[in-house]
Amino acid sequence: MKKSNIFAYIELSKLADGLRVSGSGAKPKEQLKSQAAYFNIIEPKYFSDELIGEWENILGHTKKLGAKLNAEGRVISNAVTHTIENMTESECRVLVDRVNALYDKLKKEFE
After folding, report:
1. Gyration radius from the chain CA atoms
2. Please, which pLDDT band fits residue 36 given cuts at 50, 70 and 90?
3. Nearest 5°: phi and psi at 86?
4. Tens digits of per-residue pLDDT, 57-71?
5. What is the rounded end-to-end Cα distance, in angstroms, of the chain?
6. Would you say 88 and 39 are in contact if contact means Cβ atoms under 8 Å apart?
7. What does the H/E/C string look like for the chain?
8. Which residues pair with 75 in a beta bridge?
């Protein structure tokens, strides 16, 4: 079985740290919006066979609404930001918890 790529570990650790550090008083939705770019740069191919499905599921959940377009058809908000903006705080909390749980599993691969 292939092991996760170090890129996934480094970038997911930055995402998880950003979500945990911001957790001091910030709402989950604001945490996720501030870290939204990571959902676009961390590709599933960087994960091990064991973890790839979890990351794909998280990505699917963060991009389900697609990009927000204006009247002319131009993108005014990417899929991740648009989806997060339309999630409830409890849905955002669940997503933060899922990202952190995945990071904990990924970290164990590198110990």
Report:
1. 14
2. very high
3. -100, 5
4. 999 999 999 889 888
5. 17
6. no
7. CCCCCHHHHHHHHHHHHHHHHHHHCCCHHHHHHHCCCHHHHCCHHHCCCCCHHHHHHHHHHHCCCCCEECCCCCEEECHHHHHHHCCCHHHHHHHHHHHHHHHHHHHHHCC
8. 69
Beta carbons within 8 Å of 60's beta carbon, 6+ residues apart: none
What confidence category does residue 1 fall into, taking pLDDT thresholds of 50, 70 and 90? low
Residue given tokens 């002319």 in the structure block: 72
Burial label, 6 (beta-carbon count in 10 A; 0-12, 13-18, 19+):
exposed
Q: How far is CA 60 from the centre of its chain?
A: 10
**Beta carbons within 8 Å of 54's beta carbon, 6+ residues apart:** 47, 98, 102, 105
Express each pLDDT in 3-13 by its tens digit. 889 999 999 99
